[in-house]
Design goal:
alpha+beta; 2 domains; 3 helices; Alpha-Beta Plaits; seven-stranded mixed beta sheet
């Protein structure tokens, strides 16, 4: 089962959709990936118990890809989510603080990393809800999404690949009535692109970050078509 197609116009100052083959220095794809586009819709309307996922259909590129080189200080270590949860619930006492400048510990501290990011990004994203439960209340979900997106509301701030690159959005209620003359009329073969890092066919609480799927991406006339996740065009580990 699926819902109706929605269109979001999204924009921001910076974006980084990291190519997975770049291990240390981040280098962005020239256009948003399906997983990052799905994440923007998730930020507006999604909940684990709802039993659906957002299926991205296509991306309209409204401004040409422009790169910018950034050098950032990044923390090498991280704090366990389980530990933070226990601290919040008062089950354990807070341990000593995590020091970003702990140079005595090679696993912690900070390091400088080079990032080739995108600047002045601007897209139109098209997606619909795909339901795993045949008894889902599609009209109810549609109404909730329209109420949130129509008023610029979200559960958390959408972002372009990295959380420090916020994405701003506007719901386009009638995309077929929009003037598409401003679409960047570029064409390019991107090649193999990351599709998603989750197995979208499973229930949401079974998502595994080790499950990576890819597809062959190309831009034609400023538009990148995205195949459905079940399509044979999307290569998954068991394929």
């Amino acid at each position: 089962m699926r819902g109706k197609t929605y269109c979001l116009e999204v924009w921001g100052d910076f974006a980084c959709f990291t190519r997975p083959e770049m291990k240390v220095e981040r280098f962005s794809y020239p256009v948003i990936t399906p997983s990052a586009a799905r994440g923007i819709f998730d930020a507006i309307y999604w909940k684990r118990s709802y039993g659906f996922y957002w299926q991205v259909e296509k991306v309209d590129i409204l401004s040409p890809p422009r790169y910018i080189a950034l050098r950032r200080n990044e923390v090498k270590g991280n704090i366990s989510i389980q530990d933070v949860s226990k601290w919040m619930k008062g089950k354990t006492e807070i341990e000593e603080p995590f020091l970003a400048d702990d140079m005595d510990n090679k696993l912690k501290g900070r390091t400088q990393r080079q990032t080739m990011a995108l600047k002045d990004v601007h897209y139109k994203l098209y997606a619909h809800m795909r339901f795993r439960n045949g008894e889902a209340n599609i009209q109810g979900h549609d109404a909730q999404f329209l109420r949130l997106a129509g008023h610029g509301k979200c559960f958390y701030q959408p972002f372009f690949g990295c959380r420090e690159f916020p994405a701003y959005f506007e719901l386009i209620e009638k995309p077929e009535m929009e003037n598409n003359e401003t679409i960047n009329n570029c064409s390019a073969e991107i090649g193999t692109m990351l599709y998603d890092t989750f197995d979208l066919r499973k229930e949401n609480d079974e998502y595994s970050p080790q499950f990576i799927s890819v597809f062959h991406a190309s831009i034609q006339g400023g538009i990148m078509e995205v195949p459905s996740y079940e399509s044979a065009e999307v290569l998954k580990p068991e394929d």
